[in-house]
Design brief:
mainly alpha, elongated
């Protein structure tokens, strides 16, 4: 249930971003938002990988 909620929130956020870009009319805003989202996703993935590696070391 939580993954569905998170997916809905992500879609809602994207929609809001698109509306904001249309209202402001600045592609720089879209660029900054996209860069921030990509950086955040990379950070989260990196964090998950580190956590998995740590747990593997602790068990093995």
């Amino acid at each position: 249930m939580q993954s569905v909620n998170r997916g809905f929130m992500w879609a809602f956020g994207c929609m809001l971003a698109v509306v904001a870009v249309l209202l402001v009319g600045m592609w720089q805003v879209a660029l900054v938002v996209l860069a921030g989202a990509a950086g955040y996703a990379a950070y989260r993935i990196n964090l998950a990988e580190r956590w998995r590696e740590l747990m593997r070391r602790r068990r093995g």
